[in-house]
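Re-run with default settings, no changes from the original entry. Doing this only to confirm the output is reproducible before filing.
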Amino acid sequence: QLSLAESGGGWVQPGGSLRLSCAASGFLLDALTIGWFRQVQGKEREVVSCTSSGRGVTTYADSVKGRFTISRDNAKSTVYLEMYDLQPEDTAIYYCARTAFSQCKLGNMDSWGKGILVTVSA
């Protein structure tokens, strides 16, 4: 059965770090593009970072460039999002999702995890 499951969220103080994991099952991770998205209540879900299949091209939202790093371990069927220098505006529910396309767009993603909460506050 196909599934994506996020873990590693929680509370952290401003300037702190967290590493999110997205464990995939039921499909070959290396054949698909995986993205991390986040959503704040009342706002549209937005893409944070994306790692494409094949050459593994990575992209980042401008708001997280230089602070977040996406990586994938195909042997472990897991994609990671390392987040550094977290700020209160990074507080959101974070989701991982997959697509057969090379770009992570809301309309492209065909399967989502349930999401995990990241809270950044003093």
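The chain has a mean pLDDT of 95. The two ends are 40 Å apart (CA to CA).
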